[in-house]
Design brief:
There is one protein chain. With about 240 residues, this protein is of the alpha/beta class. It has a single domain, classed as NAD(P)-binding Rossmann-like Domain (Rossmann fold, 3-Layer(aba) Sandwich), CATH 3.40.50. It has eight helices and seven strands, in the order E-H-E-H-E-H-E-H-E-H-E-H-H-H-E. The chain has helices at about 15-25, 40-55, 70-80, 105-130, 150-170, 190-195, 195-205, 215-225; strands at about 5-10, 30-35, 55-60, 85-90, 135-140, 180-185, 235-240. It has a seven-stranded parallel sheet, sandwiched between helices. Helix 1 packs across helix 8 and helix 4 runs parallel beside helix 5 (about 150-170).
């Protein structure tokens, strides 16, 4: 990949998939702004420390993507520290599941604030602040296109992200900016491990490739999408679920 010298902002990058994406970009010569929710500062600092130990460049910046002022500040800090971003990866999310009848209004609002509103605010700012020829990648979810009991509100919030991505790709295309969604299937994050072996085995059984994904599987797809080689790919919903959907 030809990413050396680029600047990236990765939201929700203190752990899990977001952390792995940040590490992957840093290993390829990208200066990375590691955004994290304010309560996750220890994980974010650990992420940055690990990147620096491997010779990469990164800073940790707190911010709630559902807050427009915080989002603007993220871009301001990126610009001040490294220059205007070339890459934005939207990974921050509220991943909570409940049946429709068990979903309170407060839970609905919280999930849509983090996922749909957060994506909208980040995409809107990216469209203004990104360099021409830049790359935007939203981490969505396979659940946004496949119905599964107990996931309706989370899936709906991610479906909103998908549509924002497809429309924004048309709006910023004249500047050479690409915008895509990556839709992971089951990925071996802490949340899946905490769900227990029975859930893990069930997810493996649903996947034609016979395993669940690793965070690096998703980072590899993102790495391609932000590269020069992916300059002809935009407005796409790219499944990364081992054939699950």
């Amino acid at each position: 990949m030809t990413l050396h010298g680029k600047v990236a902002l990765v939201t929700g990058a203190s752990r899990g998939i977001g952390r792995t994406i940040a590490e992957h970009l840093a290993r390829n010569g990208v200066s990375v702004v590691v955004n994290y929710y304010p309560t996750e500062w220890e994980d974010a600092e650990d992420t940055v420390r690990g990147i620096k130990q491997e010779g990469g460049t990164a800073i940790a910046v707190a911010g709630d993507v559902a807050d427009a002022a915080h989002v603007r500040s993220l871009f301001d800090i990126a610009d001040e520290q490294f220059g205007r971003p070339d890459i934005v990866v939207l990974n921050a999310a509220d991943v909570r599941h409940a049946a429709v009848v068990d979903t309170s209004e407060d839970l609905f609002d919280a999930i849509f604030a983090a996922n749909a509103r957060g994506a909208f605010l980040t995409l809107r700012e990216s469209a203004v602040r990104l360099r021409d020829g830049g790359r935007i990648v939203a981490i969505s979810a396979g659940l946004s296109i496949i119905p599964r009991e107990g996931t309706a509100v989370y899936a709906a919030s991610k479906a909103a992200v998908n549509h924002l991505v497809r429309v924004l790709a048309r709006e910023v295309g004249p500047r050479g900016i690409t915008v895509n969604s990556v839709l992971p299937g089951a990925v071996l994050t802490q949340a899946l491990q905490d769900a227990g072996p029975a859930v893990l085995e069930a997810e493996v059984a649903k996947t034609p490739l016979g395993r669940v994904g690793q965070p690096q599987d998703i980072a590899d797809v993102v790495g391609f999408l932000v590269s020069e080689q992916a300059g002809w790919v935009t407005g796409q919903l790219i499944g990364a679920g081992g054939g699950m959907f």
